[in-house]
Amino acid sequence: xxxxxxxxxxxxxxxxxxxxxxxxxxxxxxxxxxxxxxxxxxxxxxxxxxxxxxxxxxxxxxxxxxxxxxxxxxxxxxxxxxxxxxxxxxxxxxxxxxxxxxxxxxxxxxxxxxxxxxxx
Length: 120
Prior knowledge:
Helix content is 59%, strand content 0%. The chain has 120 residues and is mostly helical. Keywords: Membrane, Transmembrane, Transmembrane helix.
């Protein structure tokens, strides 16, 4: 991850001193994304971008439901739900449970020194 990308993420976190997602485990997962995608997700997770995040999350969920069509895929469903979880309290607890599972079963996903393209 480049220093410039890390700096943009710190600026995106705002004056509160925490990353945009609010959950450090989510921030670690976002840090493992390719720089361009990570910057986009960081932008969407900023509290001031709610007006973009909610429609984006809804469209991703709809695309995930229509995953049998070409181009659309099941990958869209969890991403859309994760975006919507920022604004829907009922989804926040589910996201927390998923991140707890990741922390227990796939701790290498949260390790910044692990290679990004591991298949385990």
